[in-house]
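Troubleshooting entry. The earlier prediction with zinc ion gave an output that would not parse, so I re-checked the input for stray whitespace and re-submitted. Clean input:
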Amino acid sequence: MRIFDSHCHLDDRSYDRDRKEVLDRAARAGVVKVMIVGTDKDSSRKAVRLTESHAGCHASVGIHPHDAKDCTENVLESLRNLTTSAGVYAWGETGLDFNRMYSPQIDQEKWFIRQLEIGQQLGLPFIFHERDSNGRFFEILSTRSRPGLRGVIHCFSGSRQELERYLEFDLYIGITGILTLKERGAALRELAISIPSARILVETDAPYLTPAPEKNRTRRNEPAFVRSVLLNLAEIRGEDPEDLAEIVWANTCRLYGIDA
Ligand SMILES: [Zn+2]
Ligand SMILES: [Zn+2]
């Protein structure tokens, strides 16, 4: 079984001491490719650097909505320069998060729109982060996206109506370890059945969102644990895990433009 962790933050400081072991454990679990997702200038740079020294690692560059307040045109220019590196396959995470409002709405929207423009100019797929944006995400995407836009809604946790709208935009849907959590995952488990298989990705969002059963043993999430997400997903959907793994692998490579 080969699995692609479509979204993790392996640049995080919590891996500085054992990153190599973390990637070895991932490989032993069949997780042979990972996407390391940038959230600001420094993490994007570090993600790109990691692709140069670690096999199976790919990177994206972007400014997370939480960090929008610190974004400038200069920052975006340096990210644009980073995309010439061989290891960069996507733009993100970018989007809107009105749940915690770490950045004012006006900044979030301004820099989301700019990143949509730049990513599309570069022809890169997007890694979208959306939470509680009350329809603004869809309004911006409707007016600012060009035909052929590729992207994933990472860590999907929305309603059925939102799921349907994402699918209308032909977006992929990223499923995290929330799926495996007894109470927090109940709504997601119901919706996960109705996602077309050609649109599903799995992800850890590590070091966050540790799935069950690993959650009981360790607090820090890591790419190897995406296997639990995949097995759980197969069980919920009544599908063969090997078959689902192959489909999800192909989906992830198709989205990111990586040779399967
Ligand atoms: Zn996110
Ligand atoms: Zn993330």
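This one parsed fine. The CA atoms of residues 20 and 82 lie 24 Å apart.
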